[in-house]
Amino acid sequence: MEAVYTHGVWVAEALQTETRRYEDFWLFATHLGDPKAAFLLVFPLAFYLHRRSGVAVLWVSALSEWLNLVFKWILFGQRPYWWIGESQLFVKNAPKVEQFQSSCETGPGSPSGHAMVTGAVWWVVVSALASFLHSRTGSKVLAAIPYLFYTLLLVVVGLSRIFILAHFPHQVIGGTITGVILGVLLNRTVPESRHLWFFLCSSMALLFGALLMYAGLENLGIDLSWSISLAKRWCLKSEWVRLETAPFSSLNRDAGSLLGLGLAQYWKPGGWDLPWIPRTLCLALASMALFHISRFPLPTVPALLFYSLFFLKYTIVPQVVMVVVPGFVHLLTAKPKKD
């Protein structure tokens, strides 16, 4: 793998050198491809446009990110920003590359979670949009436009991950291909009207399944915290290494969101049938609420408290989008019944 990693470093250097003036664009693209954006941005947008698609986005987000975590624990992929220093291959010929705050993720690098989750989640959105356009217009050309956008998005997000030294090119390609496959497969089995017990079991299966796997690998003498120590050692600024990017954070996000999805459908099966204007208001209110929820600071010590609150935070997200905000808007806009 040494030759593959070395080639990847030079690709990243060339990308940074040739596109440095587009730095803000690449940073925006990497934030757009962040797995948490699927939960906080794509999910509410898709849900208020089409309920089934919104549920599918949340379902696919959770499962694809969880599988990405499992793959990372198995594949032990390096990340460029620490491998450059760790390999000792560039002492005399150091590449002219720069780290960014988004570079310093603490999990293993293969496959790219941004590419994998983006590929899976946005497949749900574009396939639904393409079907809608084709059913309304009968035009295959119009129906193809969402897929062109999808391809462009995958390319841009993938390049952004290489640009900021978060991933090597082969990790981005592997994540993208895996994500597209997962999007196609998982979109066929969306639990739109399953019982709360199903979501509770699914949530606990993700949580304890990963913990059992972690414990089993640790008992075999495999140190799964190796990437965290490398991140702390080679990240340019210590404050860029955040607990929010740790593998267990993504695990709690996935498990919490599935439990929240089950609770939301339990509280209000079928949801509210709102016209377009109230749904637009729902999107605006939910976006503001999720913005503040995502920015709410959590104590990082002890770590168990942080992970517990992180789980709770993402359990709340579906409640806000599917129950609280639509219920509030329904009360505001419902016409009073005549006697």
TrEMBL record:
Q: What is its EC number?
A: 3.1.3.9
Annotated SUPFAM superfamilies: Acid phosphatase/Vanadium-dependent haloperoxidase
Subcellular location(s) per record: Endoplasmic reticulum membrane
| Biological process (GO), any one | glucose 6-phosphate metabolic process
Can you give the residue ranges of the Phosphatidic acid phosphatase type 2/haloperoxidase domain? 53-187
What residues make up the catalytic site?
H114, H167
Alphabetical list of InterPro entries matching this protein = Glucose-6-phosphatase, PAP2/HPO, PAP2/HPO_sf
Question: Which residue ranges run through the membrane?
Answer: 25-49, 56-76, 115-135, 147-166, 172-190, 197-217, 276-293, 305-329
Q: Which Pfam families match?
A: PAP2
**What are the entry keywords?**
Endoplasmic reticulum, Gluconeogenesis, Hydrolase, Membrane, Transmembrane, Transmembrane helix
The record's Gene Ontology cellular component field reads: endoplasmic reticulum membrane
Q: Where does substrate bind?
A: R79, R161
For molecular function, the Gene Ontology terms on record are:
glucose-6-phosphatase activity
Q: How does it sit in the membrane?
A: Multi-pass membrane protein
Extract the SMART domains matched here.
Answer: acidPPc
**Under which pathway is this protein filed?**
Carbohydrate biosynthesis; gluconeogenesis
Gene3D superfamilies named in the record = Phosphatidic acid phosphatase type 2/haloperoxidase
Q: Which domain of life is it from?
A: Eukaryota
> Which family does this protein fall into?
Belongs to the glucose-6-phosphatase family.
PANTHER family documented for this protein: GLUCOSE-6-PHOSPHATASE, GLUCOSE-6-PHOSPHATASE 3
Q: What is this protein called?
A: Glucose-6-phosphatase
Q: Which organism is it from?
A: Astyanax mexicanus (Blind cave fish)
